[in-house]
Design a protein that fits this description.
39% of the residues lie in helices and 17% in strands. It has eleven helices and twelve strands. Strands 3-2-1-4-5-6-10 form a seven-stranded parallel β-sheet, sandwiched between helices. Strands 7-9-11 form a three-stranded mixed β-sheet. The chain is globular. The termini are far apart.
Length: 314
């Protein structure tokens, strides 16, 4: 069976991808630092390595057919970490001949995000986060053109679900579910792109199986759930089995706190994504793998709540 090396295997994206690849029968090598390597999904071979160490990462990925680059540094560390990490991943892929797979996001399109965005949409980043993501993808595109380093970017909306904390759902939206409170970060009728992590992870596996059919550098869009706050609130009530009071994110307070807290500051800078309707067109993806994996919204929320133990009544 093929082998996948998952970088950041202890994280939200890496953990879900690890589980999906194991279930699909792949040999899964989970690359993590220190004690994190002791907390990987069942069936994953732990490999301790620092992804900033080029030699160590090349050794960790030796023999892999696919490298999933699922390392997501803290928001306020992107400027100093994203590109150096990308360069070491390129080096590992070039040395091993593996195909790199990267979870992408909609930051590339800046405040110009819109509905039915497909892969031909021009990147127009007008935030630092967006510019960094464009630079990262350009790094891999250049490596594909110049040195044959194969890369697949699967772009998706905001992640939720899985067993690792750190998403909008457990930090904001359903943080106070035990108090029967639901918080939505934007207008209640504005459509927002969400990606249920287990569905996205299964998509990674299915695309990996078809990787030979793609160009050396390829981008695919994962649609996931294109939903309003009203729809998510209703689904959350169905999942919880009780009414939930509505609340909103106090963005002015976030911006004020952001003066002294760099993570909150970076979150506040991306608030536009909750005010501008947007979702991704997945035509190119479904042409490759068939129907996109899709869990119904209320069931996805029910599973996410259970996995993260957000509701003591369940």
């Amino acid at each position: 069976m093929p082998t996948v090396a998952i970088l950041g295997a202890a994280g939200r994206i890496g953990g879900a991808a690890s589980k999906a690849f194991v279930e699909a029968g792949w040999t899964v090598r989970g690359v993590a630092r220190g004690a994190k390597a002791d907390a990987l999904a069942a069936g994953v071979e732990p490999v301790r390595a620092d992804a900033f160490d080029r030699s160590a990462l090349i050794a960790a990925c030796d023999g892999a057919d696919v490298i999933v680059h699922a390392i997501n540094p803290p928001y306020d560390k992107w400027r100093d970490t994203v590109m150096p990490l990308g360069e070491t991943v390129v080096a590992a892929a070039e040395a091993t001949g593996a195909t790199v797979m990267i979870p992408g996001n909609v930051y590339n399109y800046g405040t110009g995000v819109s509905v039915d965005m497909d892969e031909t949409m021009t990147a127009r980043p007008d935030t630092e986060k967006g510019r960094i993501r464009v630079q990262l993808e350009a790094l891999f595109a250049d490596a594909a053109a110049a040195r044959g380093v194969r890369t697949i970017v699967i772009r998706a909306g905001d992640f939720f679900g899985g067993t690792a904390p750190g998403s909008w759902f457990d930090l904001i939206i359903l943080k106070d579910l035990k108090k029967n409170r639901f918080v939505w970060p934007g207008p209640w009728d504005c459509v927002h792109a969400l990606a249920y992590m287990p569905d996205l992870a299964e998509t990674f596996v299915r695309v990996a199986d078809k990787r030979a059919e793609l160009d050396p550098f390829a981008t695919l869009h994962f649609r996931g759930h294109a939903v309003t706050g009203n729809q998510v609130h209703k689904a959350a009530e169905t999942a919880a089995g009780r009414p939930l009071k509505r609340g909103s994110v106090p963005w002015p307070l976030f911006r004020l706190v952001g003066v002294v807290n760099p993570v909150v500051r970076e979150v506040a800078r991306m608030a536009y994504l909750w005010r501008v309707p947007h979702w991704l067109d997945n035509g190119r993806l479904t042409a490759l793998i068939g129907k996109e994996p899709h869990t119904a919204l209320d069931e996805a929320i029910r599973e996410a709540v259970s996995d993260l133990q957000l509701d003591p009544r369940r």
